[in-house]
UniProtKB/TrEMBL annotation:
Its cofactor is Zn(2+). Residues 372-420 are annotated as: Disordered. It comes from Coemansia reversa (strain ATCC 12441 / NRRL 1564). Residues 390-407 have a biased composition (Low complexity). The lineage of its organism: Eukaryota, Fungi, Fungi incertae sedis, Zoopagomycota, Kickxellomycotina. GO terms for biological process: L-histidine biosynthetic process. This is Histidine biosynthesis trifunctional protein. GO terms for cellular component: cytosol.
Length: 866
């Protein structure tokens, strides 16, 4: 798959086993290749020497500019002479007429022959890809390009997935000229049969590449398989054969490939039911062995285990499983003889797979993670974590290193154990499958099941703290040098100046962007200015005057996540209330871009809110710098702002350290949204709100409370979710988050509001009739969006309310950021002579009860003078 948008490609990597190629600039290449993109396609006009990656990870694109035939050969020659020296693949972009000339003149074939002679790393020969502009592909052109040995790049919008038999180049019965995906695949791959009956031998494998069996295909069955995204083949006796249609052993089609001679197909499937073989086994070649066999056995044991099963005991005793993992890893580390190493490694693999199975992680998930790590181009030193020496020396408490040079795991590239009843065993929706929430009925839930729906994914906070503490300690003792080192290590940015101080060089922004920021600033400022209240003065009894007044917190640190992202809205939501409150020193911290600069939109907001400094750092190291101060970073009194789990952990550590003398706004988790909908709701509006949250990330929490909706009404919402999601650039993220989300049927609005209050969402959207009347019944929520014309997006950006809100159920006891976040309140009392006389006996009596004689005397000594 070749993506035009590099960021979309990086997102696609998260949900795909396929090799993802992407067009990008040379400046973007290293970062995106490190995120898992397989091949970076760079325009030939850009330098590739400085990217610093193997040739097989790069492709160079050459585009013809002349329509005349004479414009083709020079470009092909340049691709041969220049491109094959620079990269493992060349992409030649030509018009339809130029493609015909390149084929008929054998110029394309000569380029392919030259590429075949080039050996590129572990990927074999170099490749030649042909891309067309100014027209659309025909099957004849695809066959011709394939015959030359090149690969054609066909735009997705030129293809249609249909299951009818393929006769012509266009979609049968359609009014457009799109190609059938199956027909284009056959033509573009040069697929052909050497059998008398014209059938294609089809090897069927699972996610690990284990062969399940052999079948046959033709154009008709291939079209049906791609349309259904399932294993569909051509039986020599029965014709079209939809595997599992009668037995239930349905196969989910994950990918289709062609062998090197273009006469054999490989179907990669996720096998359901008993297996592929008609004898009820998973494969036609006997029982699976090795890791695949172990994974199958563990999955079966997880569902049902025989009495006395040790595996079942491990599933039920997390502490025992952890102890065995540590024990066996230590024995493997100490093993010396080959036989002993193999024996102990087998034990480690067994317990590791039990751990994986217990958490719904498959062998395919592990292999996918290995493949992604292999594609990383920025390598850490790989030293042991601080405090980890050997299993025999572990004391149970790890001392975090205070030396900035100590190897510390990059929080952004390491995963943490998560457990959740909701996400256990749930997989992402595959392309072609409906993107759909899970549905439950409130009246059929047990107490435990309802409690499970109220849970969020549980993150091992102790493990996070263990990873973050060394970073915080290093910054506390190492100052600027430590922050620079972590920024170079985690963000791949070498900084000259760590801090930029006001006045800033105000960037020139596009007119529309500047106007949007100005309008949002005005709205947010107006709402937060209205939150300021005057001093309070109360005479509690004659002569006793009590007062309360506010003062701004003098020095505040505002964390704005970012780096490659652009988040001026977060800078507004933190900076405006700090400005309104009157904070003397406002310090922003935000990750720098790849060139070490600050995102221009964030810099513009910093100017508007009167920030005094910007720290070019992100993550736990930025929080530590704000909490303790460094040579150039001012120490602050309070830190506010959202961030990932490592940022939150650093904030919590700093707040709990009396040496830091710093407070925070609130703890945080993944962003979340709850929607209440009834029969009056617009399905398209409801779906758009659900998706606006789901696209944040795969861990986004999305809940729909369906109040007395019929099956047809709920189906309309599901259909809208799928329809709108398929058109989103971040559809691959949504394919992961929506299946983890759920819809709950409830009989009444009051029941829905009770569930919402128990859930305590960050965002609550009321799509029901008379939505405003529900506000008195809302007890726990970060922010409420009332009625059909109040999408969450408005609160996120510009309505005026703040979008920095408590998540993870913390709206039970925390409020969102407001002007009060940046204020502290002081009380005062002034007693007159008569006032002291009036209250004296009350104070002295209570002091006697508490046996605090000095307290009593402080009043009594004054009474003696009256």
């Amino acid at each position: 798959m070749l993506y035009d948008d590099a960021q979309q490609a990086a997102a696609a990597v998260d949900n795909s086993d396929a090799a993802v190629w992407a067009n990008m600039t040379a400046a973007e290449a290293k970062e995106l290749l490190n995120r898992g993109v397989a091949v970076a396609v760079i325009d030939a006009t850009q330098k590739t020497e400085d990217i610093g990656v193997d040739k097989e990870r790069l492709a160079v694109r050459y585009t013809t500019t002349e329509v005349a035939a004479s414009g083709v050969e020079p470009v092909l020659q340049r691709a041969q002479d220049d491109g094959l020296l620079r990269a493992g693949a060349v992409v030649v972009k030509m018009t339809a007429a130029q493609i015909d000339v390149a084929v008929s003149s054998s110029g394309l074939e000569r380029l392919v022959n030259a590429a075949t002679a080039c050996v590129v790393g572990s990927s074999g020969s170099a490749r030649v890809l042909v891309e067309q502009y100014g027209g659309t592909w025909t099957l004849e052109q695809l066959r011709a390009v394939a015959a030359s040995g090149a690969d054609a790049v066909v735009a997705a919008e030129e293809l249609a997935v249909v299951e009818e038999p393929i006769e012509g180049s266009a979609v049968q019965g359609a009014q457009d000229a799109r190609l059938s995906l199956a027909a284009a695949f056959i033509a573009g791959s040069g697929l052909h049969s050497d059998r008398a009956d014209g059938l294609l031998t089809t090897v069927v494998v699972d996610e690990q590449g284990v062969c399940l069996g052999v079948a046959y295909s033709n154009g008709t069955s291939l079209a049906a398989a791609l349309a259904a995204a399932q294993g569909v083949y051509w039986s020599r006796r029965r014709g079209l054969w939809h595997k599992g249609q009668t037995s239930g052993a349905i196969q989910t089609l994950l990918g289709v490939a062609v062998d090197c001679d273009s006469d054999v197909l490989r179907f990669c499937v996720q096998q359901g039911g008993a297996g592929f073989c008609h004898r009820g086994t998973r494969t036609c070649f006997g029982a699976a062995t090795g890791l695949s066999g172990l994974a199958q056995t563990l999955a079966a044991r997880r569902k049902q285990a025989p009495a006395g099963s040790y595996t079942q005991r491990l599933f039920n005793d997390a502490a025992l499983l952890r102890a065995k993992l540590v024990e066996e890893a230590g024995e493997l580390a100490d093993a010396a003889e080959p036989a002993d190493v193999a024996f102990e490694a087998a034990d480690v693999l067994y317990f590791a797979m039990v751990k994986c199975t217990a958490h719904g992680v498959t062998l395919a998930d592990v292999e996918r993670s290995l493949d992604r790590k292999h594609r990383q181009v920025v390598r850490r030193r790989g030293d042991a974590k601080p405090g980890v020496v050997s299993s025999k020396e572990t004391t149970g408490s790890e001392e975090g290193s205070t030396n900035p040079s100590t190897s510390i795991a990059n929080p952004s590239t390491t995963s943490l154990p998560r457990t959740s009843v909701l996400s256990s065993g749930i997989r992402a929706a595959l392309p072609g499958e409906q993107i759909r929430m899970r549905v439950y009925a409130d009246d059929s839930l047990t107490t435990d099941e309802r409690a499970a729906l109220l849970q969020r994914p549980i993150v091992d906070s102790q493990e996070i703290m263990r990873r973050v503490q060394p970073i915080v300690d290093a910054v506390r003792t190492g100052g600027d040098a430590a922050v620079r080192e972590f920024t170079a290590r985690f963000d791949n940015v070498e900084l000259d100046a760590l801090v930029v101080r006001a006045p800033f060089d105000v960037p020139t922004l596009p007119t529309a962007v500047r106007a949007a920021i100005d309008q949002a600033y005005a709205n947010v400022h107006a709402f937060h200015a209205a939150q300021l209240v005057g001093d309070t003065h109360v005479e509690t009894m004659p002569g006793v005057m009590c007062s309360r007044f506010s003062r701004a917190i003098e020095r505040v640190g505002l964390y704005v996540p970012g780096g490659t992202a652009v988040l001026p809205s977060t800078a507004l939501m933190l900076g405006v209330p700090a400005q309104v409150a009157g904070c003397r020193e406002i310090v922003l911290a935000t990750p720098p871009r790849a060139d070490g600069s600050i995102v221009p939109e964030v810099l513009y907001v910093a100017h508007k809110v009167g920030a005094t400094a910007i720290v070019k750092a992100g993550g736990a190291q930025a929080i530590a710098a704000l909490a303790y101060g460094t040579e150039s970073v001012p120490k602050v009194d309070k830190i506010c702002g959202p961030g990932n789990q490592y940022v939150t952990a650093a904030k919590m550590l700093a707040q709990n350290d009396t040496a830091a003398m710093v407070s925070i706004d609130m703890p945080a988790g993944p962003s979340e949204l709850l929607v209440v909908a009834d029969a009056t709701s617009n399905p398209a509006y409801v779906a758009s709100d659900l998706l606006s949250q789901a696209e944040h990330g795969p861990d986004s929490q999305v809940v729909l409370l369906a109040v007395a909706l019929s099956d047809a009404q709920l189906a309309a919402i599901h259909a809208e979710v799928h329809r709108q999601a398929e058109r989103l650039p971040r559809v691959d993220v949504v394919r992961r988050s929506i299946p983890k989300s759920f819809c709950l049927h409830l009989p009444s609005l009051s029941a829905a509001l009770r569930f919402s209050n128990d859930y305590a969402p960050e965002h609550l959207i009321l799509h029901n009739a008379n939505a405003r009347a529900c506000l008195p019944d809302v007890v726990n929520a970060g922010s409420v969006f009332v009625g059909p014309y109040s999408p969450e997006s408005c609160g996120d950006y510009a309505s005026g309310t703040n979008h920095t809100l408590p998540t993870y159920g913390f709206s039970r006891m925390y409020s969102g950021v407001s002007s009060a976040t940046f204020l502290k309140y002081i009380t005062a009392q002034e007693l007159s002579r008569d006032g002291l006389a009036n209250i004296a006996q009350t104070v002295m009596t209570l002091a006697e009860v508490e046996e605090l004689e000095a307290h009593r005397n402080a009043v009594a000594i004054r009474l003696q003078d009256m």
